Amino acid sequence: MHPFEPLENVNQSPPFAGRNLFSSDPVLRQAISLYAPDAASRLKRSGEDWGMSSSFDLGRLANENAPVLKTHDAVGNRSDQVEFHPAYHALMSRSAAGGLHSMPWENNRDLFSPAGHAERAGLLYLTAQVEAGHICPLSMTSASLAAIRHAPDLVEEWAPRLKTRSYDPSFRAPHLKTSATIGMGMTERQGGTDVSATRTVAVPDGAGAWRLTGHKWFMSAPMCDAFLILARTEKGVGLFLMPRVLPDETVNGLQFQRLKTKLGNRSNASSEVEFHDATAFLVGEEGRGIRTILDMVTQTRLDCATSSAGLMRLGLANAVHHVRHRHVFRKALVDQPIMQRVLGDMALDSAAATALVMRLSHSFTEAATNPSERAYARLMTPVIKYMICKMAPAFLFEAMECLGGNGYVEDGLLARAYREAPVNGIWEGAGNVMCLDLLRVLEEEPDCLDAVLPEFGRWLGRSGLDIASALQSAARACLVDPGSARILTEQLALIGSVSALRLIGYEELADVFFQTRLASGQWRMTYGMLDGRYDAARLIDTVAPQER
């Protein structure tokens, strides 16, 4: 070979796409076999579809061609519409056809006993690996039904269109459309996380509707057909459903100021908006809007954690794929001891994240009829969102390092995944908010912790640790010293991880996770801290088996 002859594809890993994202993920498969066994064949088909090269291309195109706000038309009239690339609409159509926005509610007339959360979590987890931005409006639409169910008239009008497995992006009155999506607006410039500081004002119009005037600092997916909005009434903060287009086909009084320029999540539009005498309809009891919308927020927190777990799985699978094909220093990179320990360590966290979100999704399905599962959902939702959404950015950075320069460039998958990861830790409550929510549970519903402890004790009692006593003591300490809440939150997440792994039959992973995260007292700031007692190569192969 001539010394200057191009070395095309020499010692480079083959393309990552062209795999079944479900079949190649044994932890997800095992969780589905326990929590939603009837869904395995459907998720296998979805895993094949999402793993295609053309699917990853759609994700790339939707993010390279960001949405554009058109505030006015050619002759100066306000239009307040957002234009999306066709790839975004293609992703929305595929996910809507799969039921990502509707699955838990489809066979439920009263909307108070949703089912199918585990299958939907599996689908969302697969979808997030390809493109996470378009999930936002579908996640909010699914979660919106948890709030709208408190307004029977609105349920009758909106639920049929929200539960339809189709996507209709047309800008028309809802009754003229085949389907609909719903977003939400809580955050205001002066309040941020403190939604009780809402200044948007709602006044009754005397004909059964309300008129809202004010603003929202963040309102994602502005082309949704309606939004759930917090606004202040004489009795306090209420929750309102605000359509984009009214039944008489006039455009409602929403004026979008700009789209946010975000670090990631670029396929999804996030906006600032003003309301000018906009028509809306009360949801639930006047003055209790924050409590009512929390039913929706709880659902979207599960989705944030699930999406982050999916991104972590993408990072691990991409990194393992690369090192199995890359050779350095006359040896396959995957056979280098230090690389094995990094990836083995990462495999533990990825497996734990997958097991946790699937365990939590199961509790959402069972909560209506099983008090212990309701307690698990209430206690562990903020805990699991906190932990997985915190892990994902650092995890994806480590995955990028495994690929070296190839991981840092936009030609691959991990640069976009890395930029995407932080948003799930911020949306629906950042880390401190999750800790405060946990404290609220301990104060208002202390029985939730007691209900969950037997499950944890069953799996960790063999270690000789009195888990119940330790966690109860930590909970009491947090109520006295709220500043320590992150310690308890992480303890619950780590213990819950061991329990979730054991529940789906991964005894070895659970044991190593316990020894390295809970029992050893080992200082950890980065991945790769496994010592020689553990078979790192075996851990990798367990979580990310060899491709066939």
Brief summary of the model shown:
By secondary structure, the chain is α+β, with helices and mostly antiparallel strands.
What can you see in these coordinates?
The chain has helices at residues 26-35, 40-50, 53-64, 86-97, 117-128, 135-148, 152-162, 289-325, 337-366, 371-403, 405-408, 414-426, 431-444, 447-460, 467-480, 485-503, 507-519, 536-543; strands spanning 68-72, 78-83, 182-185, 201-204, 210-220, 226-233, 236-243, 254-259, 270-283, 327-328, 331-332. By secondary structure, it is an alpha+beta fold. Strand 6 (226-233) and strand 7 (236-243) form a beta hairpin. The radius of gyration is 24 Å and the shape is globular. The mean pLDDT is 93.
Query: Helical amount among residues, as a percent range?
Result: 40-55%
The CATH superfamily of the largest domain is identified as Butyryl-CoA Dehydrogenase, subunit A, domain 3
Which CATH architecture of the largest domain is right?
Up-down Bundle
- Low-pLDDT parts are none
CATH T-level topology of the largest domain: Butyryl-CoA Dehydrogenase, subunit A, domain 3
Q: What is the total tally of β strands? A: 11
What structural class results from the helix and strand content?
alpha+beta
Q: Ends: how far apart? A: 32 Å
Choose one word for the global shape. Answer: globular
What topology emerges from the helices and strands here?
Blueprint lengths: L25 H10 L4 H11 L2 H12 L3 E5 L5 E6 L2 H12 L19 H12 L6 H14 L3 H11 L19 E4 L15 E4 L5 E11 L5 E8 L2 E8 L10 E6 L10 E14 L5 H37 L1 E2 L2 E2 L4 H30 L4 H33 L1 H4 L5 H13 L4 H14 L2 H14 L6 H14 L4 H19 L3 H13 L16 H8 L5
Parallel strand pairs: 3-6
Antiparallel strand pairs: 1-2, 4-5, 5-9, 6-7, 7-9, 8-9, 10-11
Helix pairs in contact: 1-9, 2-5, 3-4, 5-8, 5-9, 6-7, 6-8, 8-9, 8-10, 8-12, 9-10, 9-16, 9-17, 9-18, 10-12, 10-13, 10-14, 10-16, 14-15, 14-16, 15-16, 16-17
